[in-house]
Specification:
The protein has 439 residues and is of the alpha/beta class. Among the domains are: 219 residues, FAD/NAD(P)-binding domain (3-Layer(bba) Sandwich), CATH 3.50.50; 75 residues. It contains 14 helices and 22 strands. The longest helix is centred in the C-terminal third of the chain and has 18 residues. The chain is globular, with a radius of gyration of 22 Å.
């Protein structure tokens, strides 16, 4: 026991403590647990997974944010490394919706659609040649948006719409807000785009990881919020955690934060961080906004489980996870997840009006939507609970100026790795740092 003012704090000792159970937090806690560390994972909410989890809404497992998993990439790599199943079922029925038509992508991707919607063969070749050159030779810089870059080769609204759908759904910004360089960095990492859904919902994966952590001698706490990070002589020394109306003093020589770089900095004692680092965190990192809607139906209304929506007002994707993965919806029912981008992803404005535009899109895509469908949830992720914690290309990195204090998450990854893939990548990088230090 130690005294904090007039309060007596109960002390606990661990090899490592992880605050926040998003993709990055779950992955690093599991990686450390599998390699001899006794880990405490503390999550302030009552469920695991953060912005990549599922909550039960009358039998429908609705996503709390991210849903689709890049097949074979970092999340699945972590699962393989720790010896558990990811549960990912690849989306095999994939299409793009554009102006009332569905373009089946089973036999081709973006370039196939470009050839189909281009005005002529010359336009298609001009665009695909530019894409190939940017991918293999010289990519554009950060001084031009992707939309402006593409405008150099075509003004075709269909082609622009295809890229807007991909960018806004994958990167949570609009094509006119994204530096062109960042698009090509991501494509080099993730191409070809293949996604899947976690059977039983994303929470099922995090519960498997939590079981692994406990079996390795660690503990997993929900309803447990970090109050401050302990720093001694420039090194991480643990965390004060508030749980069950008590503040607990957690001693640990390794601390990993999954609450975002700005959230991490706010919990570090004053004077411990370099002003330049703080300025970078607070001035260059801007959270993005996305809109998320779930609806259900009795009859299956779409022929595809993953649909990229182009040339709409706001909607950029519709996934039907219950088509590919079991345990997502009640028997005989169907669950749909809709992603949409506000016109300004950094300052989304009137959310009610933005969702009104989403509903117009859904009525265009699914005739008689109001009669056939039941809206389950509507959420705009922004501010402290954002789409991404920062615009692509403005990451803080996984290391902090405090030795043995690390960040993980979608703002702590290298450029080219975004969203859940980037969060898992940040966990891999933190684990490599810890392992290389011989701890």
């Amino acid at each position: 026991m130690i005294a904090k003012g007039n309060q007596i704090l109960r002390q606990r000792n661990f090899d490592a403590v992880v605050t926040g159970s998003g993709v990055g937090g779950m992955c690093i806690a599991a990686l450390l647990s599998c390699n001899g560390f006794r880990v405490l994972l503390a999550e302030k909410r009552r469920y695991l997974g953060g912005r990549f989890s599922t909550v039960n809404h009358n039998g429908y497992l609705c996503a709390t944010g991210g849903l689709a998993v890049p097949v074979g990439h970092n999340m699945e790599q972590v699962c393989q490394a720790i010896g558990i199943s990811s549960g990912v079922k690849p989306a095999t029925k994939v299409a793009t919706w554009l102006a009332g038509d569905f373009y089946d992508l089973s036999k081709g991707g973006t370039r196939t659609i470009i050839r189909q919607v281009a005005e002529d063969e010359g336009e298609a070749r001009r665009v695909t040649d530019a894409l190939n050159n940017a991918m293999s030779r010289k990519a554009p810089g950060h001084d031009i948006s992707f939309k402006d870059w593409l405008d150099q080769y075509t003004h075709n609204p269909g082609i622009h719409g295809v890229f807007q759908a991909t960018i806004s759904s994958l990167l949570t910004v609009n094509s006119y807000e994204l530096p062109a360089a960042e698009y090509f960095k991501v494509m080099k990492v993730i191409s070809p785009l293949t996604f899947g859904f976690i059977e039983g919902g994303s929470l099922a994966l995090w519960e498997r990881m939590a079981t692994l952590i406990r079996e390795a001698g660690g503990e997993v706490w929900t309803g447990a919020a970090a109050e401050c990070f302990k720093v001694q002589k420039g090194r991480a020394a643990g965390v004060h955690i508030r749980r069950n109306r008590q503040t607990l003093d957690i001693n640990a020589p390794i601390v990993v934060s999954n609450i975002g770089p700005a959230g991490t900095a706010a919990l570090i004692p004053e004077g411990q961080l370099d002003p330049g680092y703080l300025e970078k965190i607070h001035t260059s990192m801007t959270p993005t906004a996305i809109m998320w809607l779930h609806f259900s139906s009795n009859e299956l209304l779409l022929d595809y489980s993953a649909i990229s929506v182009a040339c709409s007002r706001r909607v950029n994707m519709i996934d039907v996870p219950s088509m590919q993965a079991e345990g997502i919806a009640p028997p005989g029912k169907h669950l749909y997840t809709v992603g949409a981008a506000p016109l300004d992803s950094l300052n989304p404005g009137d959310i009610k009006q933005e969702f009104a535009e989403v509903m117009k899109d859904l009525n265009d895509i699914i005739p008689d939507f109001d009669r056939q469908c039941t809206v389950l949830t509507k959420t705009c992720y922004r501010g402290k609970w954002p789409g991404f914690r920062t615009v692509p290309g403005k990451h803080a990195g996984h290391r902090t100026p405090i030795r043995n204090l690390y960040n993980v998450g979608d703002a702590a990854c290298p450029s080219g790795y975004e969203g859940s893939m980037g969060a898992a990548k940040s966990a891999q990088l933190v684990y490599e740092d810890i392992r290389s230090a011989g701890r």
